[in-house]
Amino acid sequence: MLLLQFSTSHYCRKARLALGYKKIPYAVENLTPGFHALKLKPLTGLTTMPVLLPQLENQPAAIGDSTEILRFLEGYQPLPSFLPASPSLQAEAWMLEDWLDESVGVAARFVYYDFRAGAGKSIDESFFSQLVIGVVRRQYKINSASVRLAALRLEKAMEFLRCRWQVSPFLVGDNLSVADIAAAALLSPLALIPQYRENYPELMQLIAEIHNVCNEPLPPGL
C-alpha cells in the first residue's frame, strides 16, 4: 500500500496510526502543498490529503479522506479491530471520530499554524517552511480572531477528553478505537506548543502511548 501525504499533516498521521495499529506494511510518498492537487484530483476528484493507494487486486484504486481510509482498513483487515464489539459503541466511536475530525482537528490546525508563524517561528525558519505556513494561513483564513475561537474550542475539547480518559484508558469501550486514534493524531500538533504540554501532561502521555501501540514515531514535542 502507498500513502500519499503531507509529512506534517495530523490527518495523514491518523492514517499512519491506523495502518500501524493494523500492522499493514505501507510506503509513503510526500507531496508538495499546492502541486499535490495535480496528482490527487485525477485519483479521487478531491484535493485533500491523505490518499491511500491499496495497490491490490480487487481493491479500490484510491481512497481519499482519513475517515474513509480507516473504514477501508477495518473492512480489509478486521483484526486487530479498532471498533468495539457493540453496535451502539461502534456508532459512538465513529461519532467521536467525526467530531474530532471536523472540530478538534480544524481548531488544532489554526492554533498550530498561528504558533509556527509567531512564537514558534524559530523551530524552522527556512524559506520553504515559512512559505508553507503562509500558504496554509491564507488558505484557511487563519487570523487572530479565528485563532482565539479555535483556542476556546480546544480548551473545551481537551477537558472533555481528559474526563473521558480519566474514567478509562480508552475513549469508547475496552480497547483502542478509531476515536483514540483520531484524538492521538489530531491533537498531536499541540505537543509542540509549551502551554499545551504544561497544561495537559496526562493527555500528552496518552497520545505518546497510542503512538507506541501503533508503532508510529512520536510527534515533535513528545
What would you say this structure looks like, in words?
Helix content is 58%, strand content 6%. The protein has 222 residues and is mainly alpha-helical. It has a four-stranded mixed beta sheet, with helices on both faces. It starts with a strand and ends in a 9-residue tail after the last helix. The mean pLDDT is 92.
SSE order and pairing:
Layout lengths: L1 E4 L4 H12 L5 E4 L5 H9 L6 E3 L9 E2 L1 H11 L10 H31 L9 H13 L4 H24 L10 H9 L7 H6 L1 H13 L9
Keywords:
222 residues; mainly alpha; four-stranded mixed sheet; 9 helices; 58% helix; globular
Residue ranges: pLDDT <50 for 5 or more in a row?
Answer: none
> Got a strand count?
4
N/C terminus separation = 28 Å
In quaternary terms, these chains amount to: single chain
The shape is globular
Walk across the major sheet and give the strand order. 2-1-3-4
Main β-sheet, in a few words?
Answer: 4 strands, mixed
How would you sum up this structure in a few lines?
With 222 residues, this protein is mainly alpha-helical. The protein contains 9 helices and 4 strands, in the order E-H-E-H-E-E-H-H-H-H-H-H-H.
